[in-house]
Amino acid sequence: GEFEFPTWAQPLFELYSEFYAATHGAFDACIGADLLALGYDNSVRFIPQSAVSTGKNENSSIDSWSNYRRALPVTWADISQGGGSTTLCTNQPVQLDFGAAGKGYFVDLVTQIIKEELGEELPADFDFLVNAGGDMRACFSKENSQIKVALENPFDTTKAVGVASIASGALCASSSARRRWKVKDANGFESNLIATHLINALDGIPACDLCASWAYIPAKNCDFPTAYADAIASALFVSQESDLQKIVQNVGAEFAVMLPNHALRKTCAFSAHFFAA
What we know:
Elements: E1 2-4, H1 10-22, H2 32-37, E2 80-81, E3 87-89, H3 102-118, E4 128-132, E5 135-139, E6 147-153, E7 156-166, E8 169-175, E9 180-184, E10 190-196, E11 199-200, E12 205-206, E13 212-218, H4 225-238, H5 245-251, E14 254-258, E15 264-266, E16 272-274
Antiparallel strand pairs: 1-3, 2-3, 4-5, 5-8, 6-7, 7-16, 8-13, 9-10, 11-12, 13-14, 14-15
Helix pairs in contact: 3-4
């Protein structure tokens, strides 16, 4: 069937097409079906990081992802977008989840609304911050203005692992520490498998090579810096950094990632001071 979305959704669809191509299909809005299959619905009960093993492979018990079988997936490439419009066409059922970039895109839309509503009434020294639970965009009247933002420790969410200094622009984070749950087996009983919302669309399995990621993009570099920062932070979990190189360069993104062994890797210009994790 054909499904018409609001016109404001078009840039989001274009972003997903761009990241789908760059990651060779690992970044895909069609993971909605995989999330539902793993039990990510209104009844899901999240468990804290401290309640499960913090080893390199918390899913290395008698249950194994190697035994997990997903249904034949629909991919973003299977959905046609009529002439670059906001009409999506599919010939089979599909569940879309835009969580990998949607919240960041929402922040950009809210930022636009604030600027448009205030218009000429916007004071010359007016600064504001739109914060949607860790995905944020700072808007400063002065070029050298900055704020400091604590970066959550994925191994202990009551603490920070570092502090970032950001100017006008977007800072987004992604982590497997909070939205994690035990997968139920065919009989409805909880297994030892731990799922997260960070799904690699190529195999339908939660990504486990990273524990946290952060991405920053200056506002002047693109029209939707928070959407791109959100997407990059998510894509780092499911793809190689080299796959994202062109996008990162185009939007002037800086980023950092933390691995399960607490090792940290970051781009040289990512403006943050990290503590020992």
